[in-house]
Design goal:
The chain is α/β, with parallel strands linked by helices and 372 residues long. The protein binds 5-S-methyl-1-O-phosphono-5-thio-D-ribulose.
């Protein structure tokens, strides 16, 4: 099943019932290699090792891997199938802690199997497939809303962080989906995007998406964004995705997002969070309760990539990991940070755009589907 409108080279998740393959994002942009994910163990590994990443994609790969797994098993009864699925969903939830989408999907899928009175496996697989379709539809709605909202602000350039595009979702993307819509709507002059150390989701993945689609774009160092805003008045907004939005609007996203929000506030630019409602955790009162994943210090004391000679040669790519920091140095590597709601101009969801008026406590829907 392919997301309509997503270029074939950008399809991170391929589901052809009952077979799941994923694009190994550790090899992008230099090598496009699909890996079959047939079991929940393989999905767990793919998520932890970052072969697949991005909040919606993580949830989708977990859900569909289990669909592939149970499609190949013979259960003695519906109750046995139900027990198996419940256990595997709990296991998949232990892969990465911050993005709520995985937990939300697991909760919904558990409810499906709890309530199924016929064939439990079929009910589960059908529900996982519906999630894949809905994610694409939601992202397209977010793109439309975000582009319309940003068209009201002067300037034709935006800045984005991490990778929130087709590769991070079932297709189209959230924040990068807005950028896509702006480009299609003739509203985008240029998009700047950060390299997003240490995994370089920007330099590798967002760059790959933007180059593939011919969208005018410039890569900047994570540390160059304040200088960029000071220099270029046309950078009217920062547009980012979300891993978990708390009930008060505090937003966990890729580390570095918080400092982008501070820079945007200082320079008087809009700061937009793009998130499907599957990224919103109404059970979390504010951002202080969000568990921020800390990854291995080795991710920041080293740098990995392909040798320049092998990339230029075009075949027989050779990957290399280089030591940057001295051995024995201490390193702290939080994968996400939490941006306070007070720094967020608007949250764009598939249901519309939520804004907080100055002095107000909550975000209110300011534009809803009937308006467009
Ligand atoms: O560590 P990652 O690559 O999974 O982090 C991804 C992000 O932080 C994205 O901004 C977020 O998941 C939204 S993706 C639509």
């Amino acid at each position: 099943m392919a997301a309509a409108g997503t270029l074939d080279c950008l399809q991170a998740i391929k589901w052809e019932r009952p077979r799941l393959t994923i694009l190994n994002q550790l090899l992008l942009p230099h090598r496009r290699e699909y890996v079959e994910i047939a079991t929940s163990e393989q999905a767990h590994h793919a998520i932890v090792s970052m072969q697949t990443r991005g909040a919606p994609a993580i949830a989708m790969v977990a859900a569909l891997a289990l669909a592939a797994e149970v499609s190949g098993l013979l259960f003695a009864s519906n109750d046995e199938a139900r027990e198996h699925i419940r256990g595997r969903l709990e296991y998949l939830k232990t892969s990465r802690p911050t993005a709520v989408n995985l937990f939300e999907a697991a909760g919904r899928l558990r409810a499906v199997v709890d309530e199924a009175d016929g064939d439990v496996v079929k009910a589960y697989v059908d529900a996982a497939e519906r999630m894949l379709e809905k994610d694409v539809a939601d992202n397209k709605a977010i793109g439309k809303w975000g582009s319309a909202f940003l068209s009201e602000i002067d300037g034709d350039k935006v800045l984005t962080h991490c990778n929130t595009g087709a590769l991070a979702t079932a297709g189209h993307g959230t924040a990068l989906g807005i950028v896509r819509n702006m480009w299609q709507d003739g509203q985008l002059g240029h998009v700047f995007f950060t390299e997003t150390r240490p995994y370089n989701q920007g330099a590798r993945l967002t760059a790959f998406e933007l180059v593939s689609e011919g969208i005018p774009a410039t890569l900047v160092c994570d540390s160059a964004v304040s200088a960029l805003m000071a220099k270029d008045r046309d950078v009217k907004a920062v547009v980012v995705g979300a891993d978990r939005v708390a009930a008060n609007g505090d937003t966990a996203n890729k580390v570095g997002t918080y400092q982008l929000a501070i820079a945007a506030r200082f320079h008087g630019r809009a700061f937009i969070v793009a998130a499907p409602s599957t990224s919103i955790d109404l059970g979390m009162r504010d951002g202080s309760g969000i568990v921020v994943e800390e990854r291995s210090p080795a991710e920041i004391t080293t740098a990995s990539g392909f040798t320049v000679a092998s990339v230029a040669g075009g075949s027989g790519l050779e990957s290399e990991t280089l030591q940057i920091a001295p051995s024995g140095v201490n390193a702290w590597n939080p994968s996400f940070d939490v941006t306070p709601a007070a720094l967020i101009t608007a949250i764009v969801t598939e249901r519309g755009v939520f804004v907080k008026q100055p002095g107000a406590d909550a975000f209110d829907l300011c534009a809803a589907p009937a308006d467009v």
